[in-house]
Amino acid sequence: MLVNWSAPQHVYIVCGKTDLRKGIDGLAMVIAENYGLELDNDSLFLFCGNRNDRFKGLYWDGEGFILLYKRFEK
């Protein structure tokens, strides 16, 4: 799985605090229900939780979803 991260046409930063315990289905439901956006339109969705050092990303690569998780160290 090689992903060209400069390829997404849109990058959306989801405002507010998201429960980062959610997986692919839960995050996809947040996008579909709250924002009414299509998940497969070559977009990267970024979520942040209660803490400011942890982030999740959701990206459709054409074959399936990629769930990204980043935790910054101090």
Automatic annotation (TrEMBL):
Organism encoding this protein: Limosilactobacillus allomucosae
NCBIfam families, per database record: IS66_TnpB
Chain's gene name: tnpB
Source lineage: Bacteria, Bacillati, Bacillota, Bacilli, Lactobacillales
Name the record gives this protein: IS66 family insertion sequence element accessory protein TnpB
PANTHER family: BLR8292 PROTEIN, PTHR36455
